[in-house]
Amino acid sequence: MNKDFKEYSICTDAQAMLKKARVEGIETVWDRLLEQQPHCGFCELGLSCRNCIMGPCRIDPFGSGPQRGVCGADADVIVARNLGRMVASGAAAHSDHGRDLVETLHAIGEGKTDDYVITDPEKLKRVAEEVGVNIGGKDDAAIAKALAERFFADFGCMNGTLSFIDRVPEKRREVWAKFGITPRGIDREVVEMMHRTHMGVDNDAVNLCLHSARVSLGDGWGGSMIATEVSDIVFGTPTPRVSKVNLGVLKEDYVNILVHGHSPIVSEMVCAAVQDPDLLQKAKDAGAAGINLAGLCCTGSELLMRKGIPMAGNHLMTELALITGAVEVIIVDYQCIMPSLVAVAACYHSKIVTTSDKAKFTGATHVEFSVDNARAKAREVVEMAIEAYKNRNPARVDIPVEPVELMSGFSNEAVLAALGGTAQPLIDAIVAGKVRGVVGIVGCNNPKLKHDYVTYNMAKECIKRDILVLVTGCAAISTGKQGLLMPAAAEEAGSGLKEVCNALGIPPVLHVGSCVDNARIIHLCGLLAKALGVDISDLPVAAAAPEWYSEKAVSIGMYAVANGIYTVLGLAPPILGSKLVTGLALNGLEDVVGATFAVEADPIKAAELVDERIKTKRKALNLTP
């Protein structure tokens, strides 16, 4: 690794910990990326296939070598199959998250848990009525059970469509019906993609790409949306609140516990346990001033949105948090958890605790959480952290920065409440040009790109152009660490957006949740389109994933485009080996679903692409550019 650590991250806490890692001889994700160079060119282009044992096969992009796999599949089919499997995996991850929450809701309804309760009964009733559950004469438990059973049916194909399909504007549903991409069931579409991509099934690249869109829509309007809505019902609908972010949220004289992953099921119980008086006393008896809980990645954002629990960092900060030497335990659930955390923790007194049987890590301590033991297991893990504190080496502790403030909690309900209860004030601001458009900037970090650089600078450039920015997941933390998630950041916005933000007391960049909460963004787009009587593709909106890396991001990007939302990626997916699939992604989908992808890693140029899209859509709506 180059010794100029500023090349790897714009964040001073990351730079300091990278330097410490080098001094202490600890390997990080950047070291391993370097060791992997050069990457396989066939894989980068999507031209390798290992779907059957007649292979593995590859297509020569220069035309002098093999042009078909053993089965006869050409470059277009191989690339389309690989893309489809990426979308299926990403959709499965989000949707399995949603299923876990539905199971929790069902357990509440059946009285099988005392640890979890309905925190927002009004939203429970509202959502139940929306999806056709009869709530007349039923108590909250009975409604919860009935709603859970309604959502369970979404995962198969019993209903023939999704519970939230009526949230989609009619014009958008007509587009889906025309091209046969209306999602019928969450699991059904994922399973069908795995079937289609088995050797000898679907060998038409365009057909495979259309089904990829269908799979992703089952994620966006199904699994992810269910996960978001049930999380709100069980744990509370987020409202705006101020907290803090970066490695400075760790406390030198406290037992530091970090929660990491994506599901609030575990982290909510840990949040409750760290407040138990007897555990606080045990921490003091061990020599600590108290217990400090903070978050990483999307599990952290779930607690940040609902409880104001501070955030230590995003995806590429997870190893670096351990390198402070101040972390006793990282408690993980699933998704985006690097296996390397176990090895880094072993260099210190720290422990990695896994909590789900679907996400075990060799070398970690496993403590299985379930609906009937979660609070007790949370206490067990907190006690483990207190014991670990006794083994901390103070000489190796380095908390490199002071935390900065950020504002989160912008659920759709909170956004509409800030607007007086309806979307009309936002529509009025868009019509007047004070808010020229909206862009959702989402996604992870990728060590191939300078940490947080593209995300932060793209968001900063967009708000200068009076484009309201909605952020989720790791992108939210990227912007939060640089101060864009506070109302004072409106000073950096254009005059129109600044006026709107100052009037409402909100930042120009709104933290709307974790990565499943991208469903909030498409839901909000649906509300705006219905209010205007147009399709989502007619709105002056766009999306971007500047530093993405995961299969989940492929599914998110696909459902954004399938909803008619132009989407800019900072890195190209592995499709460039097929001119057909690449052409479809960059141009051809415009005529099918009303939007396309673009690829641009330069944040200013990416913002310009979004700006041009918004200008085009405003002009079509007879609005000033």
Could you tell me how far the N terminus lies from the C terminus, measured between alpha carbons in angstroms?
46 Å
Number of helices: 25
Instruction: Tell me the β content.
Output: 5-15%
Query: Order of strands across the widest beta sheet?
Result: 6-5-4-7-8-9
Question: Main sheet, how many strands, which sense, barrel?
Answer: 6 strands, parallel
Q: What's the alpha carbon Rg, rounded to whole Å?
A: 24 Å
The secondary structure category is: alpha/beta
Number of strands: 16
Low-confidence segments, given as residue ranges, are none
Q: Please identify the top-level CATH class of the largest domain.
A: Alpha Beta
- The level of helicity is 40-55%
CATH topology of the largest domain: Rossmann fold
Overall 3D form: globular
Give the domain tally. 4
Quickly give the CATH architecture of the largest domain: 3-Layer(aba) Sandwich
Report on this model:
The chain is 48% helix and 11% strand. The protein has four domains: 28 residues, no CATH class; 161 residues, Up-down Bundle (Substrate Binding Domain Of Dnak, Chain:A, Domain 2), CATH 1.20.1270.30; 156 residues, 3-Layer(aba) Sandwich (Rossmann fold); 212 residues, Rossmann fold, CATH 3.40.50.2030. A six-stranded parallel β-sheet has the order 6-5-4-7-8-9, sandwiched between helices. A six-stranded parallel β-sheet has the order 13-12-11-14-15-16, with helices on both faces. A two-stranded antiparallel sheet has the order 1-2. It has 25 helices and 16 strands. It is of the alpha/beta class and 625 residues long.
